[in-house]
Amino acid sequence: MNRFVFALLALALVVLPGCRRQSGSDRTKVVVSIFPVYDLARRVAGPDADVTLLLQPGKNEHTFDPTPRDIEEVAKAKLGVMVGLGLDPWMEKLMKDAAPKARVLKVGDRVPTIPIKDEAIGEEEAHAAAGGKDDDDHDHEKGAPDPHVWLDPQRARLIVKQLAEELSRVDAAHAGGYRQRAAEIEDSLEKLDKEIEDKTKAWKLKSFVTFHGSFGYFADRYKLKIVAVIEPYPGTTPDGKYIKKVIDVVGKQQIPALFSEPQLDPRPAKVIADEAKKPLDVLDPIGGVGDRDSYEKTLRYDVAVLGKYLGGA
Ligand SMILES: [Zn+2]
After folding, report:
1. Does the structure show a pLDDT above 80 at 312?
2. 132 bridge partner residues
3. What's the CA-to-centroid distance between 220 and ligand 1, angstroms?
4. By the number of CB atoms within 10 A of the CB, which of 32, 173, 180, 303 ranks highest?
5. How far is the CA of 214 from the centre of ligand 1 (A)?
6. What distance in angstroms lies between residue 26's CA and the mean position of ligand 1's atoms?
7. pLDDT tens across 249-290, in order?
8. Residue 100: inside a domain, yes or no?
9. 93 shares its domain with 153
10. Burial of 44 (0-12, 13-18, 19+ CB in 10 A)
11. How many Å lie between the centroid of ligand 1 and the Cα of residue 189?
């Protein structure tokens, strides 16, 4: 059999529908680190690419232990999408090990960033409490860019554009579809942004305390103020001294409620809520659980929860 005939036979096996083992198995494969970016990516991909989420909803986004199945999925990918900026370094390693030839899109590198605040607690209080000197030397760099960029819908729009461009690069045949769906999602995010802007503008209170440092971009976009973060190093329980500082801030400022997050142990928030005699509710920076099965629904949920306490009904 000469080479030409062999090539024809091979082609027939791929092209003839009857010979295909699995339908759609030739579609572009994409893996994404966390739910909010995954939701946007799968919608841009539509029927033209298969998008797989790696970090299961409900898990802390800063850590991840891949299973052999995850590694198999990553190995098939032409494109890996992660946040970057130190949020999901596990994804970078996974891509390097399992799919070294795939493209990697770090969405955090494609949007304007703002730095992590110098202190997790409102500056005056923290400065006084620390006696003017730094009493911990965690290697979280002060002033490093905050990686939670997706929590501002305007930045999410930029992310959607980048997703369409990267998908078009690895799968040019479907570029038209990727760009068209991206434009539709951008409209939906524009609408969401306007809606949140109108709601938050009417809130009587503007300050709140978050569980981990995830809502910085959200607060920045809607002119709200985060006066303390309960767990500045996500997954590391704060010590008693730090918790006392937060209770102090909650008492001095008009803080109507405390919030835990589904991805982290709520106990430190519960301790503070009990001590300060405030209600404890849940804010969700990631989504993907229950009714929060899309990016927009996750943000609307958070706005509804915050509005309950800051709206001053
Ligand atoms: Zn985080």
Report:
1. no
2. none
3. 16
4. 32
5. 5
6. 35
7. 999 998 999 999 999 999 999 999 999 999 999 999 999 999
8. yes
9. yes
10. buried
11. 21
Structural domain of 31:
16-113+149-188
Q: Residue 221 corresponds to which tokens in the numbers above?
A: 């976009």
- How confident is the model at residue 21, as a pLDDT? 43
Q: How far is the CA of 60 from the centre of ligand 1 (A)?
A: 7
Beta strands in 21-178 (DSSP E): 28-32, 49-53, 79-82, 103-106
The H-or-E segment that residue 170 falls in is helix 153-170
Q: What is the distance in A from the centroid of ligand 1 to the CA of 232?
A: 9
The CA 276 to ligand 1 mean position distance, Å, reads 25
Q: Could you tell me if 236 and 107 lie in one domain?
A: no
Query: Are residue 196 and residue 220 in the same domain, yes or no?
Result: yes
Determine the distance separating the centroid of ligand 1 and the alpha carbon of 135, expressed in angstroms. 23
Is 181 found in the same domain as 53?
yes
Cα(243)–Cα(30) distance, integer angstroms = 41
Report residue 176 CA to chain centroid gap. 27
State which residues have CB under 5 angstroms from ligand 1, the bound ion: 214
Encoding tokens for residue 244? 């006392």
pLDDT digits (tens, 9 = 90+) for 228-257: 999 988 888 999 999 999 999 999 998 999
Q: Please state, as a whole number, how many other Cβ atoms lie within 10 Å of the Cβ of residue 125.
A: 18
**Spacing of C-alpha 102 from chain mean position:** 22
State in Å: Cα 148 to ligand 1 middle. Answer: 6
* Separation of CA 103 and ligand 1 centre (Å): 24
Ligand 1 centre and the CA of 22: distance in Å? 38
Let me know whether 44 and 170 are in one domain: yes
Question: At residue 127, does pLDDT exceed 70?
Answer: no
